Known about the structure:
By secondary structure, the protein is mainly α. Helix content is 47%, strand content 11%. The protein has helices at residues 2-5, 40-74, 79-93, 115-129, 158-169, 196-204, 211-227, 237-249, and strands spanning 34-35, 76-78, 100-103, 109-112, 132-136, 151-157, 252-253.
Amino acid sequence: MTQLLDISTNAAKPSYPMAPDKPLVLHKCDFNNVTFGYTSQNLWNVTYHLENQWEELVLGAERIKDALRSLQEYAMIDVREDLCRFVQDYLAKAGGSRGRSRKNKKGKDTLVFSYLDLVKLLDESACEQGSEMLDVRPSPANQTPPAPTSTKKKLISWGKALQLMETKLSLTPYPKHHRDAKSHISLMDRSKGSTYEDKVAAILSQPLSGKKRQRFIENQEKDSINYGEGQDGEASKEANIRFYDKMTQLGGSGI
């Protein structure tokens, strides 16, 4: 924060996306000379509203949690023909983040798995976790003479498959892994927006009849009258102090 507020070394705001608002919680905020007031009617209405929201969200969360549990327990997949193929396709789309090293188009090292690598890794691990062997025979209606011999498929629950992918490949379907995978760039090293001087110059370059220019001039005149004027028409440091002193004295009481 100290670096961000130091306009001598950081004249413009770094580029960054807005944080999601859902996790943000504010229960109390104190201000000098301000006292918040409450009424029983308002507190009753807010409490009723929040209780209803809480009930709906808790029930919804339990339904989703139960759906996840049922998928992990009852859904069975073929390790070789399905799971290994899926992981191979997923890693290919993700740029190949695991396995043997090779050069990509840009000449950088990237890591990939072959299908046989995955079969060996996941198949052996599935055996350790206790996979089920299923004798799969085609239905008579789909048989074409000569009837194919029975084939054994190694089945594993989706829950065990998730464990395998996480422990062996560090792959999980959790939202945190769906975020942008680009390397983190320090806030102070990111591209900067326009400086205050650039914005003022852009406003003053507009025609005299422009709304932004007129509003800017009006605000400058108000600041000059209320808080004094600094060198070259800019608010001086003392003027800023007087402004913030005045604002901190404003207040009221809701009681």
